[in-house]
Each structure stands twice: as C-alpha cells, then as structure tokens.
Amino acid sequence: MLITAADEFWFHRRRGLPRWERIGHPLDTLTVVLCLVWILCVQPDHRTAGVFCALAVFSCVFVTKDEPVHRRCCTAGEMWLHAILFILHPLVLTSAGLLWPTFWSVPSGLFPPIIKSSGFERPFLVMVCSLMLVFGIYQSIFWNLLWHPKKAAP
Fold this sequence. Notes:
Elements: H1 2-15, H2 19-41, H3 46-62, H4 67-73, H5 76-104, H6 121-146
C-alpha cells in the first residue's frame, strides 16, 4: 500500500493521468477489492478456492493493461516502481488467500494448515479491504471529477 501511495501521490500527481489511466486505475483497484470481498463473504472450499484463484489471476493480468501507455508517459523511476508493484501484486493476493481459511475457521482437513490462526486475520482483512475500497473511491472521484489538467503556457 505504501508503494502504491508513492506511485499515486508522487508520480501520478506530478505528471497527471491521461483519460485511459483515470478510468483504468480505479478498475485495477476494483479487481483487488473483488478478490478481498470474495474472501470476506464466501467460505473457502475447493470450488470457491478455484474462483478466488481465477479472480486473483485476472487481477494480476488486468493491472498490466496500462503498460503501453506507461511506456510513453512515465519516467524510469515510475516504471521501476511499477515493476515492484507487479512483483508484489500476486504476493499480496496469495497472502490473502492463505489467510482465508483461518478467517473462516475452516476445519483443518480441507486445506493444509500452512497458516496458524492468531485472531488478527478477520480485522486485518476487513481493514485492508476497506482501505482498498476507499482508495478506489478516491481514485475515481479525484481523477475523474476533481483533477483538471494544467493548461499549457501560451
């Protein structure tokens, strides 16, 4: 989240976003929120785990859609930051998926007991999902309603 914040509040604010990114970035956030909402709302089993995996893979691929635009618009520093985000994206979703059975207190026979529950999983996943949802709402409102491109000097 800190690296995403650096991208948003340093690089994006500095260069502005073309229309494609103003629409696409909130959609990127939405794909992550959908993965987290799935975990929060659906008890894990073999079928629902498959749906989560499909949502997570879709999210990981979807966030790469802006790379042709980024190639033309971004500095080397921003491109490096995006590379770090592309590495972290599947790791974050995998981590959330590993916390999922402990969130629902699923019987240990269904999934291997990779993660032991310590009680923080439920509030942590709810907090992360809430923060992502708020961030997506901010992105939609700021970039599409409040932000205006700087006018070129005559």
